[in-house]
Model the fold of this input.
Amino acid sequence: MNSQESSWKRILAHFVVPAFIPALFFGIASTPVSLLGCRTRGLLALLVTLLGALAALAAAARGIWEKRRNGPYAVWWLVSSLILVIPAVYIVAIAH
Done:
């Protein structure tokens, strides 16, 4: 595998795939109440948020582990965790 293929693989794994969680969250949040109902929408959004937060914790732990080993991909894992935590940050921000 050459360097360019490896770069695209990293971009796909650490930017595109984690971006599905915020996209799913905002897709659920923008769904009309008449389609899903208020409670169902809220519970689905909460479920996606919790899954994203757990995945962000796992990605952050992997990034810290890589950083301690002086691994070259620590920053990629930390960026993934920042993308995954977007729905949780949004919920906390609108709660205030």
The chain has a mean pLDDT of 91. Residues 52 and 84 are 5 Å apart (CA to CA). The longest helix spans residues 38-68. Helices lie at 3-16, 20-29, 33-36, 38-68, 74-84, 86-95.
